[in-house]
Amino acid sequence: MGHFRKNLTDRQASVLAHYVGVLGFDTQKMHYFKSEEFLEDANGPIDIVIFEPTSEFKYFLITTAGLSAYRTNENFAPVELFMILPKTWKTDFERAEFSWPVFFLRDIAYSIAKSNSGVFPPQVYVTSDKNYLAGTDSIGGVLVFPEMTTLDLIEEKIDGLYTRFFQIVPINKNEKAKIEDVGLGNFIEFDLHNAEGPVLVVKDPQVKKGVTALDKIIEHNEKSLKGK
User: Fold this and answer.
1) How far lies 111's CA from each of 102, 179, 204, 208, in Å?
2) Burial group, residue 18, by CB count within 10 angstroms (0-12, 13-18, 19+)
């Protein structure tokens, strides 16, 4: 990572090297957000990094760098968290609709670092009882296995311990209510995995919601049931 390496802890450098080695990211095309504070037990900073899409991985990937230094439960492996953003995501991080994932992921990471609970999918993390920030209707996230990436990404041995890499999928108030109604397992199986495949990419604020193939199937079935 060249001259940039001197600003990282050894663990942070290993985390970023894992992403670069597995998904082929270019460290010259990444955006680094330093944390503004250390946590109380001073295991180091939890920073946020955004990698730009490549020919190997055609999405933005936003990840924690340093969360795995906080092993909150001896029965669970250290973890780093990431989210996947569409390749159309703008790098205009001065605007709330494009910058909110940075603060969102950081706050979930901080809550995990300060807790004594282990991290393993599936889990729900709630950041707010209303829209988290301007530019998003997300109020929390679901922790899932990173199935959109190669299996090689899931773990890496760092400092003698395997670190796990798990994905966060943002959810809004209606989705949280549905989880409470049908259960997390059913939500993941039928909402995050619908007829169009896994819905694990953060929604692009520029793209207006259209009629999906699944919508058309439902509409057709409803009309058939009504004899139309």
Assistant:
1) 14, 21, 26, 32
2) buried
Q: With helix as H, strand as E and coil as C, how does 102-120 read?
A: HHHHHHHHHHHHCCCCCCC
Specify the pairing of strand 79-85 against strand 161-172: parallel
pTM for this predicted structure: 0.84
Per-residue DSSP letter, 90: -
CA angle 61, 67, 18 (to 5 degrees): 50
Nearest Cα residue to 178 out of 194, 190, 165: 190
Secondary structure of residue 43 in the 3-state scheme:
coil
Q: What is the pLDDT of residues 67-83, one digit of tens each?
A: 999 988 888 999 999 99
What is the rounded CA–CA span in Å between residue 98 and residue 83? 13
Task: Tell whether the torsion through CA atoms of 22, 23, 26 and 30 is positive or negative.
Answer: negative
Q: 24: Cβ–Cβ under 8 A, 6 or more apart, which residues?
A: 54, 55, 56, 57
Q: Are 95 and 133 in contact (CB under 8 A)?
A: no
Helix (H) or strand (E) run with residue 124 in it: strand 123-126
Q: Give which of 125, 100, 102, 122 is closest to 114, Cα–Cα.
A: 125
User: What are 96-108's pLDDT values in tens digits?
Assistant: 889 999 999 999 9
Q: Name the amino acid, one letter, at 122.
A: P
CA-to-CA distance for 109 and 103, rounded, in angstroms? 10
